[in-house]
Amino acid sequence: MNEDWEQRTTAAWATLDDYDEAHAADFRGVIDALVAELPDGSPVGPFEQASAWDSTGHSDKAEPLYREALARGLSGYRGRRAKIQLSSSLRNIGRAEEGVELLTPELDAPSDELDDAVRACLALCLSSLGRDREGLSLVLGALAPHLPRYQRSMANYARLLVEPPE
What we know:
Layout: H1 3-14, H2 24-35, H3 44-55, H4 59-71, H5 76-92, H6 96-103, H7 115-128, H8 132-143, H9 151-162
Helix pairs in contact: 1-2, 2-3, 3-4, 3-5, 4-5, 5-6, 5-7, 6-7, 7-8, 8-9
């Protein structure tokens, strides 16, 4: 994996919306060809393939590939993306509790640009489990810093949704 491979992979992903449902397999073929260039055992390969399956509506086929990528040691930014995407896939296939278990520790992970995605996906998993107040709290907490005003109020409202009453 080198900068050229990364650029070609980014370019391939930029074309995803050019493929309709009838041609989704063609897109996955493009990703598979890029993955074939990676060294054997690379954790990036199953992650990219899982992402392609997921992005073309097949969470069931993506789930084991995300797990394989993580088991092979996928870490850093792609590792966090894999956890977010795996949680979403788990929710989509009726296993939202596993998604909650996977993403909850990410709330305490070092902060990065994926923090809001963690909270949004976790909120969806919680909602699927009937835990809407917790999910809404996460979403409001993620939204608050982006508001031009009312950041403090929204952050407090988010907290009060899940804090026990005094």
